[in-house]
Amino acid sequence: SYELTQPPSVSVSPGQTARITCSGDALPKHYAYWYQQKPGQAPVLMISKDSERPSGIPERFSGSTSGTTVTLTISGVQAEDEADYYCQSADSSGSYRVFGGGTKLTVL
Amino acid sequence: EVQLVESGGGLVQPGGSLRLSCAASGFTFGNYWMTWVRQAPGKGLEWVANIKQDGSDKYYVDSVMGRFTISRDNAKNSLYLQMNSLRAEDTAIYYCARDRWVPGAVAGSPYWYYYGMDVWGQGTTVTVSS
To answer: How far is CA A87 from CA B13, B42, B80, B91, B110, in A?
Structure first.
């Protein structure tokens, strides 16, 4: 089955830049999406189609892609950004959705 | 207000069945693909299934194929997940989510782009245990 690979954890100090990667063989063919999930809450769509920010998402969140890796970048990290982040895409057929294992962002 | 509210979760014995519901409001339900996503305790998100606007196309993760059935009733603005032959590993919070597609163009021709799961419910908990 198709997999997306994320680092389990990333730590950053407030005001610094956090980068969370997601790797998958089909990413050059299919867009990636990023979701933020805080404890006890439902996920929230943060980045669409590799790099688009949905309405209401702060500008400090951005997405980029290079080959089989996509990256979520959070510039000027704030304490409220501490959460789990999941990438999501589709398998090679495009019909089946898949999530990465998630990355816990800790703001030191 | 755009809203999704799940219900139907609970405690069920291994091998048992459960039907989850998701009530949609604040948008034209019949215009959207819909999705079920689950999250086992302390684990990550897992896509479970999705269904086309008119119910004609459905896709499932391999681990639930043949046991779970996704369906919808557009007249009732409702999404369902019938879960049979439940196993301990099906224990999770089950979320319904709206799939958003946006119009675009490729080589001058109209094309719909998947935009992501843009609205989520708060989830309903399913526990499979004897």
So the answer is: 33, 17, 25, 22, 27
A2-57 residue pLDDT tens: 899 999 999 999 999 999 999 999 899 899 999 999 999 999 999 999 999 999 99
Q: What is the pLDDT averaged over residues A70-93?
A: 94
Strands, E, within B26-128: which ranges?
33-39, 45-51, 58-60, 68-73, 78-83, 92-106, 109-120, 124-128
Taking the C-alpha atoms of residue A106 and residue A85, their distance in angstroms, rounded to an integer, is 11
Instruction: Kindly determine whether residue B47 and residue A99, on different chains, have CB atoms separated by under 8 Å.
Output: yes
CB distance B59 to B69 below 8 Å:
no
How far is the alpha carbon of A46 from chain B, nearest alpha carbon, in Å? 9
The answer to whether A35 contacts chain B (CB < 8 Å) is yes
CA-closest candidate to residue A65, choices A18, A101, A28, A20:
A28
The tens digit of pLDDT for each residue in B12-65 reads: 999 999 999 999 999 999 999 999 999 999 999 999 999 999 999 999 999 999
Q: Rounded CA gap, A46 and B41, in Å?
A: 23
pLDDT tens, B88-120?
A: 999 999 999 999 988 888 888 888 889 999 999
Nearest CA to B93 out of A39, A34, A33 is that of A39
Would you put residue A102 in left (φ > 0), alpha (ψ -120 to 50) or beta? left
Q: Identify the contact set of chain B against chain A, taking CB-CB distances under 8 A.
A: 35, 37, 44-47, 50, 59, 61-62, 95, 97, 113-118, 120-123
